[in-house]
């Protein structure tokens, strides 16, 4: 009897781990951000899983005329001050709960501030919400394919 219970628990564990892993797969990869003011592509963020947490770093910038070619985070605090924006981890410590990534933070490199963050997929687009208390802003990020990358 104990063997059957253990085997059933093992199968359930494998099943739910597989579901969680499939949900994670929907999020990892390259996502293009869109500038709120110009509606043009702003950057590419690579999302990945580290220790069951969703993290994201900037891997490419779409620079406009007159912008620095390789900018640094001039407004960031502490150890992030003057760190290059390309390669900068802007999403950290996101936990997957009830179909969304929550309880993490997102950095706005333009002002150096961290905001609480929620991330979910809706209509094939990544919904990224940064907020402080009841005030929030949600951006839609677009998944990039290998063809778009080149």
What report would you give on this structure?
- This protein is an alpha+beta fold and 150 residues long.
- It has a single domain (28-145), classed as Lipocalin (Beta Barrel), CATH 2.40.128.520.
- It is 19% helix and 47% strand.
- It contains 2 helices and 8 strands; from the N terminus they run αββββββββα.
- The protein has helices spanning 2-25, 146-149; strands spanning 29-34, 41-50, 53-61, 89-97, 100-108, 113-122, 125-132, 135-143.
- It has an 8-stranded antiparallel β-barrel.
- The protein starts with a helix and ends with a helix.
- Mean pLDDT is 86; it is low at 14-21.
Q: How is the main sheet built? A: 8 strands, antiparallel, barrel
**Secondary-structure element pattern, one letter each:** HEEEEEEEEH
Q: What's the CATH class, please?
A: Mainly Beta
How many distinct beta strands?
8
* Average pLDDT level: 86
CATH fold type:
Lipocalin
Strand order of the largest sheet: 1-2-3-4-5-6-7-8
CATH architecture: Beta Barrel
The value of Rg in angstroms is: 18 Å
**Separation, N- and C-terminal Cα atoms:** 57 Å
Structural shape: globular
List the helices and strands and how they pair.
Elements: H1 2-25, E1 29-34, E2 41-50, E3 53-61, E4 89-97, E5 100-108, E6 113-122, E7 125-132, E8 135-143, H2 146-149
Antiparallel strand pairs: 1-2, 1-8, 2-3, 3-4, 4-5, 5-6, 6-7, 7-8
């Amino acid at each position: 009897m104990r063997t059957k219970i253990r085997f059933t628990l093992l199968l359930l564990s494998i099943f739910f781990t597989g579901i969680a892993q499939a949900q994670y797969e929907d999020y990892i990869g390259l996502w293009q951000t869109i500038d709120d003011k110009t509606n043009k592509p702003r950057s590419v963020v690579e999302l990945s899983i580290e220790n069951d947490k969703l993290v994201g770093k900037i891997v490419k910038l779409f620079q406009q005329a007159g912008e620095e070619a390789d900018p640094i985070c001039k407004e960031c605090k502490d150890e992030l001050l003057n760190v290059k924006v390309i390669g900068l981890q802007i999403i950290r410590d996101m936990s997957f709960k009830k179909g969304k990534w929550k309880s993490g933070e997102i950095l706005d490199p333009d002002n150096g501030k961290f905001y609480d963050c929620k991330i979910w997929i809706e209509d094939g687009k990544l919904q990224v919400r940064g907020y402080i208390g009841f005030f929030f802003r949600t951006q839609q990020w677009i998944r990039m394919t290998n063809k778009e990358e080149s």
